[in-house]
């Protein structure tokens, strides 16, 4: 097992420069069809040129993006997740997004399901999406790397659990060489 210091050294070695992960994501969004690009940028709080919006405009943009997002086909959503998370994590992130999960979040949450309350479900899904994206875009690494270092990544690393569950659900787990 690595010490915290050893792990932090390895994490810092692969961490992207400030803003580089976001710039790569924006570049991928610009390659999408206009509707998907707009949704992706708005959801992330950016204008059509990829510049940050002020708080008031950001909230309005995120609301508009959410309303547009729920009308997308599965294929369009997959394209958007590939742009947000990159080619290494996009398919896992989309699968994590559609997993059946508790609707409350935060430290005081209680697990329950209320399928008829789609707004509750959307809030949980979008909250997870924000956390997972803010954490993963700082590192251009495969899912396995995140699994190895999740315990050392600190704040928001609990959002990686749904990515790992999605990978397992998709059959992405491989047996270890020792058979365990």
Provide a descriptive summary of the structure in words.
The chain has 180 residues and is mainly alpha-helical. 58% of the residues lie in helices and 0% in strands. Helix 5 crosses helix 6 and helix 6 packs across helix 9.
In short, what is this structure?
58% of the residues lie in helices and 0% in strands. It has 9 helices and no strands.
Write the layout of secondary structure elements.
Layout lengths: L3 H11 L5 H11 L3 H10 L11 H15 L4 H12 L4 H9 L19 H19 L6 H7 L10 H10 L11
Helix pairs in contact: 2-5, 3-4, 3-5, 5-6, 6-9
Q: Which structural category do the helix and sheet elements fall into? A: mainly alpha
**Principal-axis shape:** globular
The largest β sheet comes out as:
none
Radius of gyration: 17 Å
* Average predicted local confidence, pLDDT: 85
How are helices and strands ordered from N to C? Answer: HHHHHHHHH
User: Helix count, per DSSP?
Assistant: 9
Percent of residues in beta strands? under 5%
């Amino acid at each position: 097992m690595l010490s915290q210091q050893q792990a932090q050294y390895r994490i810092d070695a692969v961490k992207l420069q400030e803003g580089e992960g976001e710039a790569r994501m924006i570049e991928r969004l610009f390659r999408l069809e206009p509707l998907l690009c707009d949704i992706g940028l708005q959801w992330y709080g950016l204008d059509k040129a990829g510049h940050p919006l002020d708080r008031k405009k950001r909230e309005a943009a995120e609301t508009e993006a959410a309303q547009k997002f729920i009308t997308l086909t599965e294929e369009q959503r997959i394209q958007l997740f590939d742009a947000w998370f990159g080619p290494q994590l996009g398919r896992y992130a989309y699968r994590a997004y559609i997993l059946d999960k508790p609707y409350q979040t935060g430290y005081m949450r209680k697990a329950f399901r209320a399928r008829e309350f789609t707004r509750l479900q959307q809030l949980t899904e979008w909250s997870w999406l924000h956390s997972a994206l803010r954490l993963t875009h700082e590192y251009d690494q495969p899912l396995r790397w995140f699994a190895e270092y999740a315990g050392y990544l600190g704040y928001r690393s609990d959002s990686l659990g749904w990515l790992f569950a999605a990978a397992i659900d998709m059959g992405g787990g491989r047996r270890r060489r020792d058979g365990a």
